[in-house]
Each structure stands twice: as structure tokens, then as C-alpha cells.
Amino acid sequence: MKQIFEQKNLFCLPWTQTILGTHLNGKVNFMALDWITRVNFKPAMIGICVNKNNASHDAIIDTGEYSINLPSVNIVELTDYTGLVSGNRVDKSDLFEVFYGELKAAPMISDCPLSIECKLSQTVDLPTNSFFIADIVNIHIEEQFLTDGTPDMKKIKPFLLTMPDNNFWAIGENVGKAWNDGKDLRKKQ
Amino acid sequence: MKQIFEQKNLFCLPWTQTILGTHLNGKVNFMALDWITRVNFKPAMIGICVNKNNASHDAIIDTGEYSINLPSVNIVELTDYTGLVSGNRVDKSDLFEVFYGELKAAPMISDCPLSIECKLSQTVDLPTNSFFIADIVNIHIEEQFLTDGTPDMKKIKPFLLTMPDNNFWAIGENVGKAWNDGKDLRKKQ
């Protein structure tokens, strides 16, 4: 028999940990970001949820551009730090070496295996947060993190966040193949 | 030097695998769902992205209610099966034992450690998909998957999807503590 878990505001499924890159008043800024999903198949669009109190929120409204960077487990501390201090009080512009793609205000982190360049397309206003929907302009990845031309999670070594226990988790063993493992059941129907 | 990854439609970060539960023309239906995120802190709101061609898409529009269920690695095959066949062609209502909370059209899966009961609040129309924003009505969890009153991922054993390699991954080792591991760096600034 299931019981009701009361901390529904705090709870989250395991989310992939990313770092949001913006330009805040003309300076590079970073923020730990967990609430993120693809939202449209074609064209490729991605959505992120940012609290209205965060400096990055206003930076996105201001420039309409940002990056989503996928850190490896070797920079857990730096990633966590970006979520502990506000860009309104602390200059985080020197934390990482950055590079740019097509967009002028989407600083991408060289130390992250994979970075997504995003152009804001639509903002959904919600009570405490904004949900920003963006076109994926480009996905940038280091060749060393590809296997047969595809991003390889065993090489990238991303990590996940769960709340309210606030744990970071590595990716574990391969447990199956999507659009494949259910085929035997389909035959039986 | 990073290169551009061309398959941006297909790519996704590691997403937690869930199963969407709906009522399709009055019958229970399920669909594998990966594009999902929290979208508002308070009140607790969650967003999911569903392709307009999926039967579940119309079911959500019709009833305004659904469930999000978090499966364990022991039901990878069943989970994958729900994403291989359409509810418009195959009756999936007997796949799982279900239970209900407050909502009449949000069938929750007894075999999943954790289920989220959702009431649709807003629909964002995008080119190939709809992004459904819902209030989290309740989170239901079996007591055996809690530790000190909190969902314990080592007990729940969720799994993740990556694309375009289409792999399922278990959660791995604990690699840190959020809002904590960056504190030493904060002191140094």
C-alpha cells in the first residue's frame, strides 16, 4: 500500500545535472541547473525552468540566449558552487574557460564534454518560476566523448541530482536497450 | 576543440525513464515517457512533452488528468513495451495492476515504487509536440522505498534513457552532496 509523500515541492525525480551559461549585464555567468527537458522533436527544442529570483533568470530575459553544459563527475564541486552563490553578488565569470558558437551571449564551458547552444523562443510565466523554451542552435561535443559518432555516456560521465536527499549520482551499468527490449512482449500480444 | 553534433533532433541528455498513465476513451493506457521536468517550485508543478501523434496526447487533452510512474530496473521490458505499441491499436490496460488517488483518470501503477498524480493546468502548443504543465496533486510511494522518510534511489532503482544510442542506464554510485560540496570553494572567494 502506497503512502502519500508530503514534500512534493522539494521532491524531484533523478535529473541530469547541468550548468547554465548566460551573459549577466555583459559578464559571463553560470548557474547549476537541473529542471530541463526536451520539449519538441522537430525542430529540436529544449525547455528549462529557472526561479524568478535567480540572476540567470533576468540574464535570459535580457539576451534571449544561453548555453546548457553537461559536466562530468570530475567537476562536481565547481558545479555545486555555481548553485551556491548568486551572480548578483559574486563574479563567477572566471570559473571556467569558455568558447562561443553562433550566439554572442551563450558562453559554453570548455571543461564540459558537451554543450548546447540555445536561442530563446518562448517564455511560460508560472508562479515562482519561468519556463524558457529554446531552439537548439547547435550541440558541441569533444570528439573524445563520441563512440561511432554518438555521445557516449560511459566517456562523458555525467551525474544526476535527487531531492530532497540532495545526492549526486553517477550513471551506472547499462540495463537495456530502448525500442528493443519490449519486442518479445509485442510478439506475444 | 569541440565539434558540432548533427543529430540534434535525436539527441537527449540522460532522462529518467517514466511511464505515463492515462484514460484513453475510458480505458487505462500507458506510454513510456522520458521528456519530463519540474517547472515550478511552489506550487509543485511538473511538465511533460508528448508527441501529437501519440494516443496519450489526445487522452490528456480529453481528461486533463494523468499519472507519471517511476519504474525500477526489474521492469525494463514492460516499460519499453509501452513505448513500442500505440494505445490506438493495442489494449495495454491489463499490463499493470493500477490504483487511484484523488483523480478519476490518473491510473497509477502498483508495481512502480513511486507515482505522481497530475492535473493538467496549461498546454503549450509546439510544432510536433505539446508540452503539458500540471499541478502535482499527490506523490504516492511505497514505504519500503523510503529511508528516513525520503525516497531512496538505491532502493527505488530507477533507470535512465540516452539517445540516439538508445541505452537504458541504472543509477550508479553516490558522487557528492548538492548545496554542500561547493562550500569550500565559496569560502575561498
Task: Describe this protein's structure.
2 copies of one chain form a homodimer. Chain A is mainly beta and 189 residues long. Helices cover 15% and strands 48% of the residues of chain A. In chain A, the strands form 4 sheets. The first copy, chain A, has a 7-stranded antiparallel β-sheet with strand order 4-3-7-10-11-6-5. A 3-stranded antiparallel β-sheet of chain A has the order 2-14-15, with no helix packed on it. The radius of gyration of chain A is 18 Å and the shape is globular. Chains A and B meet through strand 1, strand 2, strand 5, strand 6 and helix 2 of A and strand 1, strand 2, strand 5, strand 6 and helix 2 of B. Strand 15 of chain A pairs antiparallel with strand 15 of chain B.
Using brief descriptors, characterize the structure shown:
three-stranded antiparallel beta sheet, seven-stranded antiparallel beta sheet, homodimer, mainly beta, 4 helices, 15 strands, 189 residues
Gist of the model:
Chain A is mainly beta. Chain A is 15% helix and 48% strand.
Report the helical percentage of chain A.
10-25%
- N-to-C SSE string of chain A, H for helix and E for strand: EEEEEEHEHEEEEEEHEEH
Question: How many separate helices of chain A?
Answer: 4
User: Shape of chain A from CA axes?
Assistant: globular
Strand order of the largest sheet of chain A: 4-3-7-10-11-6-5
Largest interface: A-B, 100 and 100 residues
What is the overall pLDDT average of chain A? 96
